[in-house]
Amino acid sequence: MKIMRNRVVVTGLGAITPIGNCVEEFWKGLKERKVGIGPISVFDTEDYKVKLAAEVKGFEGKDYMDPKTAKRMERFSQFAVAAAKEALENSGLDMEKEDPYRVGVCIGSGIGSLQSIEREYKKLLDKGPNRVNPLLVPMMIGNMAAGNVAIQFGLKGKCFNVVTACATGTHSIGEAFRSIQYGEADVMVAGGTEASITPLSIAGFGALTALSTSQDPLRASIPFDKERDGFVMGEGAGVVVLESLEHALARGARIYGELAGYGATCDAYHITSPAEDGSGAAKAMEMAMKDAEAAPGDIDYINAHGTGTHHNDLFETKAIKLALGDQAYKVHINSTKSMVGHLLGAAGGVEFIACVKAIEEGFIHATAGLETEDEGCDLDYTKGEGVEADIRYAMSNSLGFGGHNATLIVKKYE
To answer: Does the annotation count 342 as an active-site position?
Structure first.
């Protein structure tokens, strides 16, 4: 017996990224192959091997909320509020006409605020425990992105966050999707946010040898390329408004696309490396296709996790072949991280928006910087220029430390 579930559609988009602080600028940047990577400006990197990051430029929290409120929020929460504000305005949702207990939030962050931890720990050592900011904990903890968005916009429904490292944004949208499918909410504001370009973060990821040590911004984040040497740390937020189709139609909302499938698995293999045969990620893709009632031949485009680390790109390629079979060689694949770096918990949110825009405009952006595919990376990664294509089904993959795999499928609304 098939369980009747609500259809879920995307009605609002919001983004803060290293190539633009709104969806329009972000998408324009992707189409133009604009690379948002440059020298780290927020601290002195003299003693660091890693010199580059993809920083958000020209962002001021007080431009999106009152200055006093902004002061009580760390950067990752400010990004979330800013992206949610754009998404809600874009959706046309009028909260005065909504039951606030039917509008929820699921916005995750992989790390929360390392800035506050570093700052207040130094204060603790230098000046003692009585000088630590009394707001340290509520500013630091990762759930405060969701909490602050709910507070700012009066969203009183289900409010939670997912923390699955680099898969956070994708899982958050997936779990919000399920909440609407099964009637727990009419509307969910969902996505991911991150602001982890800090001394401790760069030192930690650098010690893992996960980060690129290239000093050329155009050759630092080069997924699937034989010269790739790691990912580039990025920051930002990607937030979408999801709602039941019935609710969207009732209020005459603009519909960008239908969120049709979600799959989630765990490799149960290694804390940082994906499973070498790609089986876990493949199973997430298969589950998402089954959920969307789509066959491998229906998938027109995949926004790959595509980090630019040796293991990820090779094993994700294997996973796509496992999940799609012969169709793997016919589907267009790209990596948004080639331009914005790796936004950790925000990556899935931003990349899902890239999928929605690709369907809307019939355009698949290039994997910027890709020159020569590595051995084993033998699929179509949209090298060189972007391509115009009629996209009916788009898939977005995210793989996180801990073995977390998540896949979303969005399709053209019919």
So the answer is: yes
Burial (Cβ within 10 Å: 0-12, 13-18, ≥19) of residue 134: exposed
The residues with which 333 forms a beta bridge, in sequence order, are: 302
Phi-psi domain of 313 (left: phi exceeds 0; alpha: psi -120 through 50; beta: other): alpha
Looking at residue 215, its amino acid is: Q
- The three-state DSSP-derived secondary structure of 230-278 is CECEEEEEEEEEEEEHHHHHHCCCCCCEEEEEEEEEECCCCCCCCCCCC
Q: Out of 171, 247, 332, 342, pick the active-site residue.
A: 342
CA 366, CA 384: separation in Å to the nearest integer?
Answer: 6
**pLDDT at position 1 over 90:** no
Element (H, E) at 358: helix 347-361
Indicate which residue of 171, 247, 305, 365 is catalytic.
305
pLDDT class of 4 with cuts at 50, 70, 90: confident
User: What pLDDT digit, counting tens, does each position of 137-159 carry?
Assistant: 999 999 999 999 999 999 999 99
- The active-site residue, picked from 106, 159, 166, 355, is 166
Residue 2 has a pLDDT of 56
Asked if residue 185 lies in contact with residue 159, where contact means CB atoms within 8 angstroms, the answer is no
Please give the Cα distance from 146 to 100 (Å, whole number): 15
364-396 pLDDT per residue, tens: 999 999 999 999 999 999 999 999 999 999 999
- Cα dihedral 332, 240, 103, 112 sign: positive
Instruction: Give catalytic status of residue 22 as yes or no.
Output: no
d(CA 314, CA 304): 12
Residue 305 annotated in active site: yes
Residue-wise pLDDT for 293-348, tens only, equals: 999 999 999 999 999 999 999 999 999 999 999 999 999 999 999 999 999 999 99
